[in-house]
Amino acid sequence: MNGNDGEEEEQPGFEIGLVVRNRILRQEDDSIDCMEVLLKELRHVGFTVETVRGFTDGFIKLSATLERLGQAAADLQLRKPTYIGIDLPFQWEDVNAFVRQPDGKLFSWCERFRCYQHMLYGIRNRSQSDISLKLDGRELVWKIREPLLQTLELEGILKHVFPLHDEVKRKKLLKSWVLNKRNYTNQDIDDMYSYFGLKIAIYFAFLRMYARWIVFPALLAVIVQLVNFGSMQFLVLPVFFTSTTLWAVLFFQFWKRKNYSLISRWQINCSVTAGQGYKFLGMECTSLKTRLELLKAMGDRNREKAVYQRYEWFGHLVRFRNNALIILGIVCLQLPFELAYAHLYEVLKSDITKFALTAGYIFLIQFFTKLGARVSVRLIKYENNENSQFQADSLVYKVFGLYFMQSYIGVFYHALLHRNFLTLRQLLIQRLIIFQVLENVLEHSLPYVKYSIKKYRAVRNKKHRRTASGGKKVHFHSKVEKEYLKPAYNASIGDELEDGLFDDYLQLALQFGMIMMFACAFPLAFVFAAVNSFTEVRTDALKLLSMFRRPVPRAAATIGAWINIYQFLIVMSICTNSVLLVCMYDQERKWQIEPGLAGILIMEHVLLLIKFGFSQFVPEEPAWVRARRVWNAEQVQDACAKQLLKSFPSREKNFEEKKVE
Q1: What is the pTM of this model?
Q2: InterPro entries, per this entry (predicted)?
Q3: Which of 53, 178, 311, 486 has a CA positioned 20 to 30 A from the CA of residue 542?
């Protein structure tokens, strides 16, 4: 096939930015030649290069042609779906055989970013000797086979590599996702996938579907709150609780179907990942001793089996130990602290004292949460997780345990121990409305404040230098520098394993748990959650498009560990609402199994049965996705069978060879 057909795709703008020390961009300085070498090497590998002088740093903007990206994809052996239904390693010569993206491009943003990284860090010293680079009167040694960017990073010359916003596409997304007054939850998710990548697109698809579905329990909550059902009023809360539980179960089953549809539509290979054994054969385990044992055992099948089993169970034991340490820390440190705050809040009478107590509590709990997150990250490094996604999921489970205790233990205290439903509703209003509004304001204002402070410092430093040299007024005109001064989209617990979506998912999960677990105590919480969900679709899009740098794309085809956290919260809501109904109907605290209380217990068990049985009633994978997957598997099997048959010598040829002998 003619590879030139791929050139029909429009040439992209600058997509990658390099931040370097401003002084090395001065070409007239003879004491510096590392910049000249860097620019020469970047152009040699196929980059289109543009340099920009900023106030505090220098910037290099990069782009590459489709053909050069295709060559990098071929070097990476990037597997892409073809029109015959088989995922094959990409080859530029056969470009027309590969399926294009929904926006017509050959490569997705995740794939293009991988190709850019390969091109950048593939710049190595391929000569037969070390190369000396000049910098400020001293020499830097670029060693044989060493990546140039790694050398410059270690010397502090190269400060950062980050993706650049595409102004045309960014404004288009702002218009469709933020400024569109007609469609609140019907924006084109393909545009978000093409611009931000898979993981962020999956988040917005989930948030958009959640905003649509939560309208039903919100309307039901308004009816429960406003309508008087007379003699049937005692059945209103059990019916509402049952309806919201069924709603939650159905929502997540249909979300799984939607998730499968999206990854099939975007041609994402969602096959089951290799287990620990395959990872072990790939020599990706971290223990040097285990590697040596594996090499010795390859000739002995029994020995190999023993090494596999020891590696597998050692990983399970390490994860169990880490989880036990986190749980022990929560029970011994955080639980007494949370109970002490809840008890003091109950016994104190002065509102001023309660406010001061809450302020001190918020300050201390942030310290505990960050400390727990750091400990969790350190523990995860010793686990034998499959890949970075498994590590991120393990971190999510551990950190969510800290936030779960922080968010719900005080509410449980007032609801179950004191049965003070007035204080319980006040706490729910406080957590859902006041804290949520303040958190949203801080979430969307802090990035702008950080950007303004960095911009002010940069302009002030430039003014001092201009004033000392008699220069003119300073103007901030570089778009790439403005973009670099924006904060990165990182998680509050650190950016080693998670990006800023961790905080967005966490906020949504805590809100979901609050409205579900205390649905009987405060039905109107669903109304606030519905309003907040519709608002989040636009504010989160605005935040990503205007307040942060363009995030580094991450390939995550599902919402990961959060789906299991939501399932856990549904089970918890069945138990807590059943207990709340018992407390409401058993005002005298006799705890007698009367018909009403027995009915609540039966209802709890029925709902738990329905929760775990609905997965059989509503299949997770749509029939058309399953049919396409089976057809693709058959195509692969047929191709492999034909290839194997061609590799066998024919019977006639073998007969003739024997006859000659």
Answers
A1: 0.84
A2: Anoctamin, Anoctamin_TM
A3: 53
